[in-house]
């Protein structure tokens, strides 16, 4: 099966130019997503096909040498974009070496069609392998669906070019003829059109997937402490409450409030106050178990959700947190040591308890109020705790 090669080339020019234009409209230099360079790469490809279309009419230096150099430059620019996206240093020498080699070699091989076909296949395959290698190295950090499209899209022309080179070497057929095209010539140009669309859409999906993940992180993270924010904690609370209703697992909640924090702000300034909040967040991260979920509830108040934790376990953990903050040696920028303490209010929902979020938080909040009223730097629980639990708690305190 052969198609009219100039028509195929025209289709390729239209596809790559349209994609380049679209990317050019949305890309911003310096945003670190590589879209700008990817768009430049597509423009280089588009121009290369224009020059290939002029084969037979324009000078061989333009329609062969410059066209092939532009094709390889397009791939080099695509690689630059990808390295920017992966936030890795761009290995310019490695990326542009095939382009420099092509400029020299294609100039020398203008009259040797077989050598040109094989060389082009080898250089493009070398570029594709570099791209695949870079993506595999960052496999876990690269968003999922988009990268599959990019890899599939880039593999297709590699396959076409390798086949073309193999047939040229094996049978010496003229796979470059425009007048009486070899089916492989048709296949290669057809594959290039599909592959550039596939890879470019894949790349845009990759950029979008990463932006979505970042936005999600920003929407659910507290900017000052890096802990989960109130919105995330409300969602986590709802999920774990539903789980507690269906399973035989208790659920505990702690509300932690810094003592006399206004005094720290007034005396040492808000920046020091912020540093204290970060130190407390760090302390929480260090002391909670991996299944526990910690967040900033607002101002100088923190929240910890303790799944599958009964009242005794929650109280022991709360005491450990209180002691850890008390023992924390916080030093201000001008070298003063600040004593810190937190009051903690807690509550535990036993399995099957139909209480809702408001009731759980309300009870913990009342316990926190009690802890403040009773002199601060204390732990209070909303649910009654029996004598055996208290003994266990005291034992924990001693071990801390
Ligand atoms: N630096 C800093 N201060 C904050 C932030 N959010 C709230 N605050 C301050 O936290 C202080 C809270 O003061 P209060 O509610 O009176 O609480 P407190 O001084 O800790 O007193 P008690 O809770 O009764 O021990 C206020 O001065 C707020 O301005 C923040 O993000 N950074």
If classified by CATH, what would the architecture of the largest domain be?
A: Up-down Bundle
Number of distinct beta strands: 7
Uncertain spans: 384-400
What is the CA-atom radius of gyration, in angstroms? 32 Å
Whole-number average pLDDT?
87
Structural class: alpha+beta
Q: How many domains, in number, for the residues?
A: 2
- The CATH class of the largest domain is identified as Mainly Alpha
Q: Which ligands, by name, code or SMILES, are bound?
A: guanosine-5'-triphosphate
Overall geometry comes to elongated
List the total number of helices.
Answer: 13
* CATH fold name of the largest domain: Rhopdopsin 7-helix transmembrane proteins
Helix content, binned percent: 55-70%
Oligomer: single chain
Question: Can you summarize the main beta sheet?
Answer: 5 strands, mixed
The sequence of SSEs as H and E is HHHHHHHHEHHEEHEEEHEH
β-strand amount:
5-15%
Question: Alpha-carbon distance between the termini?
Answer: 80 Å
Widest beta sheet: strand line-up: 2-3-1-6-7
TL;DR?
This protein is of the alpha+beta class and 400 residues long.
Written description of the protein model:
By secondary structure, the protein is α+β, with helices and mostly antiparallel strands. The protein has two domains: 5-219, Rhopdopsin 7-helix transmembrane proteins; 230-399, Alpha-Beta Plaits. Helix content is 66%, strand content 9%. It has 13 helices and seven strands. It has helices at 5-26, 35-53, 60-85, 92-108, 113-137, 144-171, 183-220, 230-246, 261-268, 270-287, 311-327, 357-373, 387-399; strands spanning 251-258, 293-298, 301-307, 330-331, 337-338, 342-349, 379-381. The protein has a five-stranded mixed beta sheet, with helices on both faces. Strand 2 (293-298) and strand 3 form a beta hairpin. The longest helix is centred in the middle third of the chain and has 38 residues, at 183-220. It binds guanosine-5'-triphosphate. Residues 224, 257-263, 265, 270, 273-274, 277, 299-300, 372, 376 line the site of guanosine-5'-triphosphate (GTP).
